[in-house]
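Appendix B.2, paired examples.
Example (i):
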Amino acid sequence: MCKKKRTNNHSSILCGGAGKAIFVKAVSGLFFLLSVIGISYAQQGMVEVDRVLVIINEDVITQSEFDYRKQTVVSDMQAAGRPMPEDINDQLIESMISDRLQIQEARRRGISIDDAALQQAIERFAVQQNMSVAQLQATVQQSGQPFSLFANSVRDSLTISRLTEYYARSRVVVPEYEKDTWVAINGKDSVEYEIAQILIKGGDEKRAIAEEVKAKIAQGMSFSDAAIRYSDASDAATGGVIGWRKPEQMPEIFIDAVKDLQIGQVSQVMQSPNGFHILNLINLKGNRTEILQHEVRHILIAADSNVAKSQATKRALEIRKRIVDGEDFDALARIYSDDSVSAATGGSLGWVSPGEMVPAFEEAFNELALGDVSLPIETQFGVHILRVEDRRKKNVTEQLKRVQADNVLRRQRAGREYGQWVRELLEGAYVKHVAKPA
């Protein structure tokens, strides 16, 4: 519950219940102290104290900060040839209160901009203005404002930007059906596949025949000859060639079958209502995003100190020697690995994509030949030995489209919802207007 009242010709907003009383008294005490200091310095003819315009929770907006913001906004509006609104002071104060509340919220959530990030942002801004940082600093100071105010405004802008990103990541949820719609409208696949097929018509009783045909192709029979000899499709006489097809022109099982095939490869046997199909990817055009995946097994000897890692390395070398000498990797992983999850499956990590593992681990399996067992590898988890079972190229075009959909829709939702969140922050804040801007 928020109540607005007038005090000494200035408005204040008190939000919340009795729990805020102590905080309000503390802020009021701060205001009293600032007022006394201001009077004392003025009476003694000392340096003028910066005037407080607004108190926002534990923070204040000063006259100098307001002057800097107004100078910047007025300059931009004049450059753009836009008229000055009559209530510009009120608009600026409201904007500064909103910004200050967001910065306070960022601080509470551990979001901050360090000096290195601030310096990089200032350097980028200087480059955009075709200046050096020294020239930018001189230009700001020539305008009559300290460069520190400019730097603080850049820091505040970066902080609010990061808070917005935090909100989008942690508070915005995009329903899957919205992603589906976005991909359907914006994510049409530009890839086209030239394919050939073999169709063995019939029910489950024909699966063995289809698997036998697939085996003959694996043993060296050309796909074209196999299609002519065994296929029940109408295109069998031409070697089963269907021609060029876009994904939207193919059945779902065909899309799933060819999307990960390399040119010249043959699919596994697939079943549809028409029978059993085998596909051959003859050619491909358009953009298809692929990553190299590794099928990996490992044995982990856990260790969390240098001494422990030294002992773990010796043990890993002993286990490696047993594997090289012919013992079963899977069996030894079940016995010795401290990674209980993968140990249950013989050390299997499944198919691993780039970036999923720590760098030392990934570097090792990238360089390892299939079937070889690595030397011990140290990571923060301990010491590993690993073996690469297989490698494959994985088509991730669809996954990337959904990631893109999620990013776009998340930003859109955040844009709509973030303003309401900031208004809720204002409703829960203590805001006291102390003086009108000069």
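Example (ii):
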Amino acid sequence: MNYNLMPGFALRTGYMMNGTGGWGSGLGTGNKGAGEFSAGVGLSFFNTGLDYSMSPFGELSNAQKLSVKKKF
């Protein structure tokens, strides 16, 4: 889900249901019926986008991702 709070700033949330057999299904959680939440923020300025997200990654703890996009 994406919430645009103001031009150039967005909050993002997500939910992944486990037990579906896909990526992240019960990775070390011990409870294959539970789901996992993820969250992130996005900034846009001068034709550039900056995104950060954090999501659970099973036994490896949390995955944190940072990406930069530039439009030419």
